[in-house]
């Protein structure tokens, strides 16, 4: 029986573990993939207090080691369900069931897909969701980036230094991401902006060879690219908890800044929570708040 089980080893979950261990609670972190979450794919973090520049991998590794050195237990299994037995929560994974007095859901978010027929089978063969991870494979090749948020803009900027040509395809004529990044992109001579358009087909022969792009009037054109970087937002990883936890219409856990969910003893932290600002600093902040409230909840059980 653990005091607190934390689901997810991203910045929110790892920060929660640090706070809970420093309060001498018995803590288990369950993680489906590897530690670090989305931040592991960021080349340079430049907006986190104290460190002017640090890679996402170094940041995540330092945080993981800090939590581990404090005595946090880690098990790498995917959580599929949670049962609420009032003062005892059962956390079910693909392999085992673990018990705790309190649970913190810090599952973060996964990449939204375009939903095209062969998209999944072309991952690693031309389709990518991470420019900083896979961009180097496309040196001097033509690539496309899809999306209009900060991720798409930053991915496109990053790729202009690697690829011979970058097509930035957005479904509207106005970007959601920051104007400063748009200005930097406009200074590049190897980028072409394609507005009011969607990617409607991936043409491949083992690997991606070209994409079909359809504009708002239904006119299509084919563009030859070796790679397509999909940056159309993220989907919170809360579906396995829907039966128990109240989610909003986009699938985010409904909770205020206190990180309390509708179930007593179950808390939420990070990008899977309904909130305005999803940044590294707000994820770690949520981790601290959720752990503090989980500790209070456990201490009041006695
Ligand atoms: P986002 O801001 O939600 O943007 C997603 C983009 O994809 C939007 O432009 C959206 O179009 C488009 N889109 C959504 N579904 C689509 C579909 N099915 N087909 C085509 N296009 C689609 O996501 P994000 O860029 O990943 O950013 C997530 C959060 O992280 C944001 O808050 C962002 O500011 C933040 N972020 C910050 C930084 C930074 O501070 N340096 C860097 C990266 C991300 P519409 O605009 O038409 O809705």
Q: Please estimate the helix content.
A: 10-25%
The CATH class name of the largest domain reads Alpha Beta
The CATH topology label of the largest domain is FAD/NAD(P)-binding domain
CATH homologous superfamily assignment of the largest domain: FAD/NAD(P)-binding domain
| Coarse structural class | alpha/beta
Strand content: 25-35%
Molecular structure report:
This protein is α/β, with parallel strands linked by helices. The strands form 4 sheets. Strands 1, 2, 3, 4, 5, 6 and 17 form a 7-stranded mixed sheet that branches. A 5-stranded parallel sheet has the order 8-15-9-10-11, covered by helices on one side. The protein has a 3-stranded antiparallel sheet with strand order 12-13-14, with no helix packed on it. The two termini are 15 Å apart. The protein folds into 2 domains: 2-111 and 234-301, FAD/NAD(P)-binding domain, CATH 3.50.50; 120-230, 3-Layer(bba) Sandwich (FAD/NAD(P)-binding domain). Helix content is 24%, strand content 29%. Bound molecules: NADP nicotinamide-adenine-dinucleotide phosphate. NADP nicotinamide-adenine-dinucleotide phosphate (NAP) is lined by residues 112, 114, 146-152, 154, 171-172, 176, 198, 231-234, 278.
